[in-house]
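ok trying again, last paste got cut off:
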Amino acid sequence: MTRVSAILAAVLLAAAWVGAGINCWSTSGPYGGETSFIVIDPQTPNVLFARQNGGGFFRSRNWGQSWEYLPGFGWPNTASSCLVHPADHRIVLVGTSGTVGGGMTRSEDGGDTWQKIPLPGYTGGSSIIRIIAHPEQPNIIYAAAGAGYDGLFVSADWGKSWSQIRTFEDLFFNDFEMSLTPPYAMFYALRWKYDPDTGQQIAQGIIRSTDGGLTWYQSMPPIGSAYRLISHPDRPGWIYASVNINSLRHIYRSTDGGDSWHLLVSKVGFDDMAFHPTRPDWIYLADSASCFFSPDSGQTLEPLYLMGGTSVALDRSSEGGALYFGSYNGIVRSWNGGTSFRPASFGILDDVWAMAVSPSEPGTLLAGDMRGFVYRSQDGGLSWKLLGQILPWMVNALALNPATDPDTILAAANYRVWLSADDGVSWGAKTSWDFIFDIKGDPFDPSRFYASSGNSMDCYPSRDNFDGIFWSTDGGTTWTATGQLDNLNIIELLVDPAEPQRVFASGHGGVYRSTDYGMTWGLASGGLVNNHALAMAMDAGPPPVLYAGISHDMGSMVGSGVYRSDNFGDSWIYAGLFDIETSALAFDPTARILYAGTRYHGLLESEDGGVTWQLTTPLLGANTVFHDVLTDCRGLHNIYAATNTGVYNRIELQTPAVVVEARSTQTGIVNPKLTNQVLPAAAVTLLFSNNPFPAASTANPVILELQLPAGATLSQTLATGRLTDLTLQPAGRTVLPLAVSEYAWDPSPAVHMPRAGGSAGAIPNPAVQLFRCVEGEDRIWLRLLRSTNTWVPSDPEYALGVTIGTGAGVWPPTAGSNWGAAGVFRQENTQFFGDIRGYDFAAHKGALTLTLRAFYQKSRADTGAVFTPAAVDLFRLDLDWPDTFWTASLLGAVITDWGAADLDGDGREDVVSVDGALGRLYWSLGRSDGTFAPPQWRALDGDAPVTVEVADATGDGRPEILVADAGGHLTVYDWADVTDKAAAPEQAPAPRQRTILAGVASASLVYDVTGDGFKDFLYTDAAAGTLTVLPGTTFAVPAIYPAGAHPLALAAGDFDGNTDADIAVANRDSRSVTVFLNAGGAFIGTEYNAAGTPAALAAADFNRDGRADLAMALTDPKTVSIWRAGAGGAFDTGQGQRIYFLNIPSALAADNFDGQNGPDLLVGFADFYKLALCVSDAAGALGYAYNINTLADTELDPINHVTLTEDAVLSIAGGTTLGGICSRAGVAAVANQSFNLVHFPRSADLAFSVVNLGAAAALLNLELYSDTGGCLAGITQSIEPYRQFARYLNDPSLFGAAADATDRWVRTFITQPDTYGFWLANPPGRLDYLDGLPLPDARAAASAFVLPGGTDPVCQALFLNPGGEQALVNIQRVGAGTVKETVRRTLPGRGRWVLDLDRDLPDLAAEDFLQVTADRPIIGCELFGDDDKLAAVEALPLPAAPATLRAPHVASGPLGVSYETHLTLVNPGDAPVDVVCRLYGDDGELLCQSPLITVPARGKLHREIHEVIHLAGAMTGHLTVDCLNTGAVTGWITFGEAGAGRFLANLPLATGGAADFLVGHIANGTLDAFSFFTGLAVVNPHAASHNVRVTAFDTNGLPVDSIVCTVSPNGRDIFLLDQRMPGLGNLFGGYLRIEDLTDPDAELQVFALFGDTPLNFLSAVAAQAVRSRQ
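nice, full thing came through this time. structure:
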C-alpha cells in the first residue's frame, strides 16, 4: 500500500491590482504618508478612520487591510479629530480645521454621507483639536478648538446641536482631555499664552476645570508647552502629558487628577498613546522618534517600531485586538501585541509634492512626499515602490540624470540639493542650507542642472537668506552659486524645450528670463497683475507661448489665475481662471492641451491657449491641492498630477488601442525544476478602445497573441485550435469562449472591473475565444470573431474587454457580460500553467514578461493594432518567500507501511505504522489542532510486518489493526489490546485472529468489495502474480485472481458506474495495470499496458462523470498518468493525461484538496522530500499547483535519528483527507483551520445561509453528491467580506432541479475559516421553515455518537461519510439495558445512508435510542415529523463525564397557543445515572426542581416536561439537568404545539457556551403570503448580570440596528427582533451578532427562532460560537 495524506491550506498573497483609468483620472498611490490619527469603531473594530496629514480622510472596513478615501475633508478643511459613537457606530463626528468652513461634521450612516453642524460663535481659523464623549453621560459631547478665540463647545444630543461654553482669547491650545472618572475634570494642554503688552508667547503648561469648563485654573506649572494629554481608561485620576521644554520632549504623569505631576521619561514624548484592555500597566506610545511599548505604566520604554510614530490605536474589545501605529510613512498593524508588524496602508494616498519623469525610460516616474520619502513607478504610476527617505522633511522637487546607470536622482529637500546614485537607498547633501526649492535639468545636456532658492510658503518676494540661482555641469555632483537673482524668492524653474539656452525663473517676485544658460537674468513680468508666479509651462510652438500660474497676494486672490506671453515674458495677458490660485501648470504638446492645477478648485484644462477652461473631473475637486502636473507623450499618453492625496494619472486614448491591464506587482514562488506548475500570475485584462479591430469577423478572425519569453513554455493544454480552423467551433478541437464585459474603473481596488450593466450584452457570443494554449508551446492565442465597430461602451470612461488568468467558476462576476445572467461564473479555467526550467529570472530582474501582438488568422498579416503596454509582467519572483512550509506533523519512526483511522473514537483520524526491521507497531493519536501526538509502540510477534491496515474488519463498530507479515500471515489485533497501558512496549499484544495467507502480501487494502456490509481484506502476492480477496469477519475463503508480473499496488473504486466496487492492481515487472470489474462478487480482470513502470495507484472520479478514474505513479518515465474510465469500466489508455516530473513519483493520494472542481492528486516522490499537489480543473484535467515541504519545522527522534520511509518515499505528512484550499495564484502552505468543509444532509427542500466574517472574500465550492458517493455537479460562488450568502439548493444559480432528487446531498468547501452557516428544511414547494441545524464541518465528524430514535412520527436518520475512504457504520438499537438490534452498512467515500426508522427498524420502541459507531468519522442527524412540521435533531457525542446540561427553552401550556415540551435523556453507559432538573424563569428565579430521576443504564428517558417538573399551569423558561453520580447523560429538548400541532422544533442539551455568537439569518416582515418573525434567546448561566450586545446586519454586512440587553444572573432574555428593533422593517437576509460585553470568557447559550406570526411553523436553531479572528 502506498498512500499520502496531508492537510493543505491557503496563503493568499495580498497583491494589489494595478491599472490606469482610460480617458478618466485614477490613482494607485503611492500609499502611506504621515498619519495624524487613527480611530477604531468601538462597536465594530474592523472599521477604522484615519487622517493623512496631507488632508486626506480615509475609512477601512477590514482592520486596515484596505482603505477608501472619504471626500469632503481635504484642504482647506482637513479632518483634525474624530469620534465614533460607542453604541451606534453609524454616528461619526469629525472636527475639521481651516479658514473656510472649518468646524464640525456629522454622519449618521457610518461615514457614507456627512452634514455640516454649526458651532455657535465659531469663527474658523482654528482646528477642532479633540472631541470627547462624557464618560457617564454618553449623549454629552465636548469639542475643543485649538488656536484660541473659539473656545470650548458642548452638545447634549451627540453632536446634532452645540452650544459654546466659553472662549479663550489669549490662550493657544495643543490638546484637550477629560478625566474618565468623577469629578470628570477637563484639561487643556497649552501651547502658549499671548502677552499683548510684550507681544511675547509664554509657555503655559496645563490648565484644569472641574465645573464643566466654565472656570479654569493651573494644573501643571508653565514649565513648557504641553502638547498631548491622555487619560488612563482603567485607573482613576491617572493622566499622561507630553511636554516640550526647551525643544526637548518629556513625559509627565499625574495620579491624582492633575493636582500634581511627576516626570516619567526625559527626552521622549508621545503624540499618541493606547492602553491594553486587561493589563493596565501595558501602554503603547507613538513618538516622533519611534513607537514604544511600556510594561510598567510608562516608567520604561521598549522600542517596537523604529520609524517615527504619529498615532496609535488598539482594539480594546478583545484580549488579542489589533494594534495600529501611524507613522511618517503610513500605518502598520500587529495582531500579536507588537511582536511583528505588517503594512496596513493600502488605499491611504500620500501627500505628494514633487514628481519627475525619466528622460530615458517612458513610464518611469518619481514622486516625493511631505515627509521626505521618495517613490518610483516603472509602469506610469500604476504601482509604486518606496526607494527611501532623504530626511523627515518635504521633498519640493525631483530630477533625474539619465546619463548614469541607474539614473542619478536629484532632490530638493530640507532647503538643500540631495543626490542619490544608488537608486534612492542613500542620499548625500550637495549644497549648504541655501533654501533650495526647485531643480530642473537641460533636456539636451544631461550634465546641466539648475536649482533655485526660495520658499512657496513664504509670500514675500525677497529675503536675505534666499541665494538665487545655482547650476551644475556634472550631473548634479557639484553646484555653484551663479550670484544671479540673489535674495529673490524663486519657486519655479523652466528650461525652454526647444532652445535650452533660454531659462525662466518665477516666484513671489514675478517671472525672470535668461538667454545664456542662466549666466545673466532679466525681469520678464510686464503686465502681470500680481507677481506671485508659482508655476510655469511652455508651448514650444510654433509659435512659442509661455504660461504662468499666479497665486494669491498676501491672502488676496486678486490677480490670481493663468497668464500667457507670446514674447517670452516681455508682456503678459490674462488667460483665464480669474481669481483662482494656480499652483501647477503643464502643457501637452501632442494633444495641445494646457493643464492648470489649482488649490481647492480642481484640475482644469484648456484646448485654446487659455481662452476657455473646463474641469477635467469632479474626482479632483474642491478639497484637492495640486502641487505638480507633468505630461509624458512617449508610449502611453500620460498626464500626471501630484496632489495632497496621491499621484493621479490619466491615459488619453484618442486612437485605436488594446489596453493591457495586469497586476505588475504580483509576486510568487516557483520551482525551477518542475516541468509543470501553475504560475503565480495575476489575471490579465484586455480592454478594446476606439475600435482597434474593425475588420475582424467570423470569416476573418483576429488572433491576439500572448508571447512568453524565451526559456518559458506552457505546461498544460487548455485549448487546441489551429490557424487552419476557421469555423466557430472546430471539430475535434477544444476552443473555450471568453466573456466580453463592459469595464469601469474602480478606484478602491484600483482596477477596471466588469459592470453589472453596459453595452456588452449586445455583442454576439462567441465573440472572443481562448483559441490555443498547448503544452510545450510558448504562446497563447485568443481569437476575436467580431468586428469592434459596434463595441462602443455606454460611457467614454468605460471600456469593453475580456479577462484571462482566472480559475474555473470565478468569471465573469456580473450578469453584464455578453453571456447574460446565465453566464455568471461560467468561464472555464484560463490560468497560466508553465514550464520555466529554462527561464533566467536573474537576467530579467525576477520578472516573467508577456508580450502581445495581433494578426489576422487567414492571412497571418499584422493588424497594426497598438497594445498599451505591449508587454506586461505576469509576476515577479518573490525572493523573500521561505523555501520551506510548515507541516502539521510527521510520524517519528521508520515506516514500512502505514494506515489511518479513528482508533480512540474522538472523531479525529489517528496514524498507525509498522517497522519491518524492528518488528514494531507504532501509533500516533490525532489532536484537535490537526497535529499528532508523539508515537507509541508495541512489539509484534512472528515474522516481520510488511503491510498494515486499520478498519472495522469484524463489524463490531471499532477499528481493528490488520498486519500482514513476511511469513504469509494475516494477524488481526483489537485496538484495546494494543493500547493496554499496563503492558510494556516490548510485550507483544495477543492477536484477536490469525489467518494463513496464500502468499506474502506485497500490497494490501481493506475494502468492502463483496457488498455484504463487511470490509474485506485484499492483497497482492508479488511472487505469484495474483490478487486475493478474503471476505470480511472470518477471512477464511479466499478468492484468487491472476494479475500481472510482480503486483505491488492496489486501488478500489466504481470504474463502471454500477455502484459495485471494482479493483485495480499495478504490476511492476509487466509494466501494466489489471482492472478487475465486479460481477456479483466475483471479478473479471483486464490487463492494460501502463506504458511505464507503475509504483502506486489511486482511484477517483476526476472528471465527475460517475465513474472512478485511475491515477498511477510511473517511475519510468517519471510521470503520473491519468486514465479516464469509459462506458462499462473500460479504459482507453491512449486518451489519458500525463504529468511529468523531474523526480520519481512513488506515492499518490486523491481528494479535493483545493476545494474547487473535482478530486486533486497529491504526489510523493522516492528521491525528493517534498510533495506535489496537482489540482483539477472543471473538466477533470490535472495540473501541477505547488510543492509541500514535509520536513519543515519537524522534530524527529533526537536519540535514534530515525528517518521516514514508505516504499522509498523519504517522508510523508500525516493527517486527514479533508482536503485543503489553494489560491488561484497557486501559492499555499500547510496549516490548520484555514478553510471550512461543511455538509448538507440532503439537497431537496433545503435552504441555507453562510456568513463570511473574514476580511477577504470567500469562495464556496458546492458539490452535489449521490448517496453512492458520486460527485454529480459542482458550482462556485463568492461571498464578499462580512456578507451573507443565502439560497435554496435548487436555486437556478446553484444546482437547479438537480437538487430536488431525494437521493442526493451536498458538501461545500469555504475558503475562509471565519465563516458560519446553517440549513433549514422546507416543505416541498413552500417558503416556510420547518427546522434546521448549524452546518456540520468535517472536523465535527465523529466515530461514535447517539441519536434519540423513539416512536414520535419519525422520518429518518441520515449519515454522511465526509472522507474519501469507505466507512463501516454500525447502528445499535439500545434500550432497557441491552443492545436489541444491530444494522450496519459500508458507507462509500462521500456517500450517504438514509435510514428509514419505520422500515429499517420496525421494532423501535419509545424506550430505545440509537448508538452509532464507525471505523471512520462520519456525520449524523435525525429528522422526525412530516411535510408540515419537522424537527431536526443533532447527533451528540457520547458523554465523557458528568456535566450540567442546559436546555435554553421550555414552554408548556397555554402561551398564546398550547405548547408542550419533551425532555429526552440518553444514558449509553453501563450504570444508572441519577439526575435533577431545575426550571428557571427569565429573571433567573428558580421556579421548580424535579425529584431525583434515574436514567437506567443503556437506557433513555423521554417525558413531557410537566412529568419532570411538577409545576401546574403554563410555564416557560430554561432548564438545567445535573448528574448526581459518576455517570453522564446527554440529550435534547423538543417543543411545539400540543397534540397534532402545527410546528415542532428541537435543540440539543448543551454544556459550556461562548461569549460571541452568530445567527446566520434574519426573516422579519411580510414576504408573499407569509408574515415572518425572528426571535432570539440568550441564557446567562453566571451568578452576575451580563450585558449582551445584539447587532443586526443586512445581507451586505452593513449594520442595521444594535441593542444592548442586560441578562439577569441565571436568567434569560427572549424576545422578537421587531419588538426590540422596530426599525428593521422588512428584512429578509442578513445576520445577527451576539456579543457578551461583560466577560470575554462568558459561557452564554443563544438560539434563534424563525416562524410566521400565526405560528403555522416554527424552527429553532442554536447560534454558532464565533471563533477568534486572531
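cool. Residues 1-19, 880-892, 1189-1234 have pLDDT under 50 and may be disordered. Residues 975-978 form the longest helix (4 residues).
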